[in-house]
Design a protein that fits this description.
single chain; about 0% strand; about 525 residues; mainly alpha; globular; about 70% helix
Length: about 525
């Protein structure tokens, strides 16, 4: 009975991972028309099906299945407890909400209500308990991420393999702000923040001939981030590389692989300039192209190529591991701390001094005001004011899952005075997932939600020495958290990150109970 239970759970878990991580991102029912609705219904139906199948399996296998579960997974991690608490507080937020119709399913077009959050929690526990190493599923997910990135790059160059832009003029807003099979560039950027770290990880950790397709896929992923149109994607990419750097500072081979991933950035930008790549970009992004795609990228490209050559020769001759004593890592930590401190002081200085701001050309991103971040400054200030004005219960439990718009537009406190293309727009969220969660699900729900990501990153870093796959988890969590500071949860990227965390949590449990030490090279 235990063998049948374990086999059933493995099949169900693999199917769920395959459907949510590989099929959902590429699924389109009627092109871009009501694409968010189509993806939500796919996610909901798959989740319902797997939940019912799990309940039937539990009923069939009964005690044997539970005994198998207990023998393989002892206890709950701190991340598990945060996920459980988040699920409970999501229910309480719904119960205390004045907008239960919206809170149950979510705001139209977003669908991040209670039902979605319950599926996120359920999917996490299904995978973190039932996942078995499945190379086939991982390969299909890798191919799916690559294809989504490739299609976005092709779309930016005017190619339309799927015919989704057939009825759009090249100058239409939709033609310039919808991409690949994800749609809205902010949704697409959120997906890339979770998907591209997996492509980079495969190139970084791979060995032998496998590094060739992995390198091609990582190169396309880098191109997808540079061309997608949301500035938060560049921040997410920088976070990926910072995490990857610190994870590579103990062994020369990994250090070499790290710089080989870094060289993809100037290589893509230099080739874009060299080929005079003709791009269809959002109008507010066109002015950046002269700064991003220039021949000056040839300088870092040349320097990195020489550095990689030197490291390769050193590694091939098997000299001593100059990184083993940890001095490079310590120096990097000091440099990173100094850089962060300098950045904070610079940012503060630009707020209080016109002279300091003027020294840096009065760059708009250095001055935090209403216009900062495409109007996010004003939106965040209004959202925070609305939170502060809410009553005690709403501060604790929020206004309800995905009820941001219901609360603010009913209260009439979100008067942004948006102009241009956003004149008649309705803000369904705060465009900052952490602030948005604070408002929707209160201090308690927001703390638990943030705790999931922080504790997951901590657990992955703790077990990285035992299992190199933890690097994929760390990069994914770090990039997602950075991107979501300027963006929002949605039914493609958020289930993706929850399941990546679940897979890595499963690996952490295996390490901790000593039942298996996965091959770090895979």
């Amino acid at each position: 009975m235990e063998t049948k239970s374990a086999g059933f759970q493995k099949i169900l878990t693999s199917a769920y991972l395959l459907l949510i991580l590989a099929i959902l991102p590429v699924y389109m029912k009627d092109g871009f028309y009501l694409l968010a609705d189509a993806k939500y219904l796919f996610f909901r139906n798959v989740s319902w099906f797997c939940a019912i199948a799990w309940l039937l399996g539990t009923a069939i296998y009964g005690v044997g299945g539970r005994q198998a579960h207990k023998s393989r997974h002892k206890g709950y991690s701190v991340t598990d407890w945060f996920v459980i608490a988040f699920g409970i507080l999501s229910v309480l937020s719904y119960l205390f909400s004045n907008y239960k119709d919206t809170a149950l399913v979510g705001y139209s077009g977003w669908y991040m209500g209670l039902l979605t959050e319950v599926f996120l929690v359920g999917g996490y526990f299904l995978v973190s308990r039932g996942y078995e190493k499945d190379t086939f599923v991982f390969a299909i997910v890798w191919i799916s991420v690559f294809l989504v990135c490739l299609l976005g790059v092709l779309n930016r160059q005017g190619y339309d393999p799927l015919g989704t832009f057939a009825d759009m003029d090249w100058f239409d807003w939709n033609r310039r702000n919808l991409l690949s099979t994800i749609g809205n560039i902010n949704w697409y950027c959120g997906y890339l923040a979770v998907g591209v770290p997996l492509l980079l990880y495969c190139f970084w950790a791979g060995e032998g001939w496998r590094r060739i397709p992995a390198g091609v896929a990582a190169f396309v992923g880098i191109g997808g981030i540079f061309l997608q149109g949301s500035a938060s994607g560049y921040i997410a990419l920088a976070v990926m590389y910072v995490i990857l750097f610190f994870g590579s500072c103990r062994e020369v081979g990994l250090f070499l692989h790290f710089w080989q991933t870094v060289v993809l950035v100037p290589l893509f930008c230099f080739l874009a300039w060299l080929t005079q790549m003709d791009l269809i970009l959002p109008y507010d992004m066109e002015h950046l192209m002269g700064k991003i795609y220039t021949p000056f990228w040839g300088i870092p490209l040349g320097i990195l190529t020489v550095e990689i050559g030197i490291l390769w020769v050193y590694h091939r001759r098997k000299h001593r591991n100059f990184l083993e004593d940890g001095r490079v890592l310590k120096a990097a930590v000091v440099l990173a701390a100094a850089s962060v401190l300098t950045g904070v002081l610079l940012l503060v200085g630009c707020q209080v001094s016109e002279e300091i701001w003027g020294l840096f050309g009065k760059a708009s991103f250095l001055r935090l005001n209403d216009d900062w971040g495409s109007g996010r400054g004003k939106l965040w200030a209004a959202a925070w004011e609305g939170f502060c004005e809410s009553n005690f219960v709403r501060k604790l439990y929020g206004v309800g899952p995905d009820c941001f718009a219901c609360y603010f537009y009913e209260a009439g406190t979100l008067e942004l005075g948006a102009a241009g293309q956003w004149k008649d727009a309705i803000y369904a969220n705060a465009h900052n997932e952490w602030l948005n969660m604070l408002i929707n699900q209160g201090i308690l729900g927001g703390v638990c939600y943030l705790g999931i990501f922080l504790t997951a990153f901590w657990r992955f870093s703790k077990n990285f020495g035992e299992n190199r796959k933890m690097m994929a988890g760390m990069m994914t969590v770090g990039a997602y958290m950075a991107n979501q500071f300027f963006s929002f949860g949605q039914v493609v990227a958020t289930p993706f990150i929850f399941l990546v965390i679940a897979v890595c949590e499963n690996e952490c449990k295996r390490i901790e109970i000593g039942k298996e030490r996965p091959d770090a090279g895979e």
